[in-house]
Design goal:
heterodimer; A: alpha+beta; Penicillin-binding protein 2a (Domain 2); Beta-lactamase; 2 domains; seven-stranded mixed β-sheet; B: mainly alpha; 14 helices; globular
Chain lengths: 634, 370
Amino acid sequence: MPPRPLAKINKIDPAELKMLKKRIDIAMALIIFSAALLLTRLWYLQIYRGDEYAKLSEINRIRIQEIAAPRGNILDRNGQPIITNRPRFNVVWNREDAPNPDAVIKDLAKILHEDVSVLLDRIRAATENPRYMPTRLQEDIDWETLAAIENKHLSLPGVRIEVVPSRDYLYGDLASHLVGYLAEISPAELAEKRYAGYESGDQVGKQGVEKIFEQYLKGEKGRNYLEVDVHGFEQRQMQLQEPFPGNDLHLTLDIELQRAAEEAMGDRAGAVVVMEVNTGKILAMCSSPPLHLQEFVGGISTTDWNRLLNDPLNPLLDKTIQGQYPPGSTFKIVTGLAALSEGVVTPDNTFFCPGYLNYGNRRYGCWKKGGHGTVDFQRALIESCDVYFYSVGQRLGVDRIAKYANSLGLGEKTGIDLEHEKSGVIPSTTWKQQRYKEKWQEGETLSVAIGQGYVLVTPLQLCRMTAAVVNGGTLYQPQIVQSITAPDGKTIKTFAPVSQGKILGSEHSLDLIKEALVGVVNSPAGTAKSVALPNVLIGGKTGTAQVVRLGQVEGLGASGIPYKYRDHAWFTSFAPAEKPEIAVTVLVEHGQHGGSAAGPVAKAVYKRYFELKTGKQENAAEPPPSPAKDEKEE
Amino acid sequence: MLRFDRRLLLNFDWVLIGAVFIVALIGLANIYSSTHLYTNVGAPLYLKELTYYLFGAAIVLLIVSIDYRVLLTLNYPLYVGMILLLLFALVFGKTIGGAQRWINLGFFRLQPSEPAKLILVITLASYYYRKETGKGFGLLDLAVPALLTGLPFLLIAKQPDLGTGVLLGFIFISMTLFVKLRWTTLATLLCGGLSALPIAWKFFLKPYQRQRVATFLNPENDPLGTGYHIIQSKIAVGSGLIFGKGYMKGTQGQLDFLPERHTDFAFSVWAEEWGFLGSVVLVLCYFFMILWGLNIAISARDKFGVLLAFGIVSLIFWQAFINLSMVMGLMPVVGVPLPLISYGGSSLLTNLAGLGLLMNIRMRRYMGTS
């Protein structure tokens, strides 16, 4: 078939060609112009703003995964770990990695045995967080759940397992108020300057040394740089910055002594403080009932929190530093010291106690209704005669008592490294004027002289005071941390004993008081003779702090008085008497009698202390046990 | 059947075939880089593309061996066939990505809107060649070519494939401006076109298409929705810097951040891996081909050749310009592939056929009025 139609076509007419050529020139100019436009755009994107886009492409493909640092350990004075870490597995949700969240959440809910709506609520609650930030769906899952999720991880895009070091409380709730607990950082804390660099979801110390020494304990977070594709699947690890563990906190506590104190307290409410008299170091410090630290791991529920708040034994209160109680007869140490030092009485001056003292138009009773008869200073303190101290108190006046009380560290915070310490109250004429805008009544001095009335102290204050009275007169700042060491063992910081000055009172009067306090425990008429140990000489003072005026509950009998109106029982003490080493102060809330309720607790502590001490001396003589063997047994 | 002239071989367009060869190599290498991680069923995509190239080479050989003037008789049968195919795609076509664009031929999935571009060029060239243009075209004279363009335009826009539709419009405008227009006609068209824009926006564009335009104007508004493509593509191109991230090392492409990375966004992969230098080389290759095509047009032996060559040049130019502008964030995202670089048999064969026609015209520039 010849191509017929081709014949019809003529060569182009030169005139028309000229015209078309003109248009092609225009087209060519337009095309060159658009090429220039595209090349300029390329230059703009790749060179002018290239670095910016290069950075964006880096962010695009790199996901930075934070790795929580293991928190520093908390150890006792002998290096015995009290709190360490264990791994905890959390299920987290990465919004940006999940193309199809609904189906995944449904599958996940089945594995977690959780309602879909619960998981969705948690995701919804976190919508204000940045998109890249994972949301925790469930915390602390068990091994079985962990295995189930790891098995299905390919079909669960967006779901990841986060391994978080979590606190392991080796001794349970021992020293719980002092060590404190951890919880997720609150939005309010995040705004604080001291928490700069923290992120929502981080665990922080909320109480006790966990909070105070947060900066030392927390360590440095690690970072895992992962290359991901658009679906969030990890392609490879680009760089791993290992987390740096926190520093170890070496407490001054002796965990064995702490245990003895807490066991002796049992389930009674109260406080025990054991302090080295010559350094101010705290050997044991317990507020009973304890906090259940395990409850706080992963956040405490509102119902649990309310239960704690409404518990009549008030477990949330650290009674050693926040409990303020009338010191009762233990305050006679203060009044006695003031009286002797100020010379208002000599040790041999006697008073007659008929069982009461009439002052003004009121009768002030002695605890011993039949009266003590003729008492001198020694007998007055040993048998705790109220009438004697009413009389010397009257001679001293409230301001002189206050002066001595203040010098013994009462009425002010001890400065211990714990939060929310209370200062107690030491009344004086100016104090009353400021506080109540009223004049001081002389009759009130009588109550103050025997540690009642306005006087309030904390167990820690009383313990420190006792230590100062028997250590030659030096007031030490109570200390709970001995040193801080880095993970490599290097010591970062040591805490030397801090003297807060000498107390008032002559050496002679201090000796007299010490002698009398030994009598309290060791003489037949002493109020704490049940505390005496066979081979150690203990000194101390009992106290019974009235919660309400005696008249209101008189005649009900000891067990008839409702719990909350029963007197608090005190015992503050030291040993060994010849060369005091430790001071032990015990408060049993509503324990009624210092000697019988608080005394035995102190006795148990001393027993343990001297057992440990002799045990240690024996151990020191023997070759030390092989540590490798110990580890195997664990 | 054909008298084979030895001069034809001498006049064979080695320059154009060389340029096409270079771009083809770039395209294949780039498709290998962007798809070697794919786990699709069947042959790897670069091998498929290579097969299309070989098939395309055969088509080019066939086309250059037949005088292009035969198209003056074949143009209407071709046009009718194209319309039927478009209708068939619309009624029985396979839906991919929400649009009915494909006809399954068993061994090959044909996208009829691709050959439709070239057939429209042939049709318009034939029409304008036949129409006497002594005083230039008036408004009424344009009714027929407008209808010829409008019909496939509607069928393609209905799929919906706005990109190809707009491309047909650009081809029509380019070719119409190229032939002589009366000034009054030009002015009327300009005013009419401008006033039609808002009406088209309101009544003709689908919501997702309006969304695309809005997104283009401000992609950061919707970074994970429709703006995602533009942002990711700009990041890919920009992060290539001067020398690129290296072949097969582009993170945007390899890690799946780029959508449609072997088809519409193939250039982004190239720009990311080869940087500014590689991008400039590719852009210059294109514009060399385009300008060479204009040279072919001006040296054609007859007016039909001029019109046809110009139409093919405008086809290639507009595809390249729209695609490159789109991946660089200068234009809204519309589905227009980059000739020879984007993966896809229909597009490749259409463009190779067009280039074959250019070679055909070039070869026969000295032929007599036989």
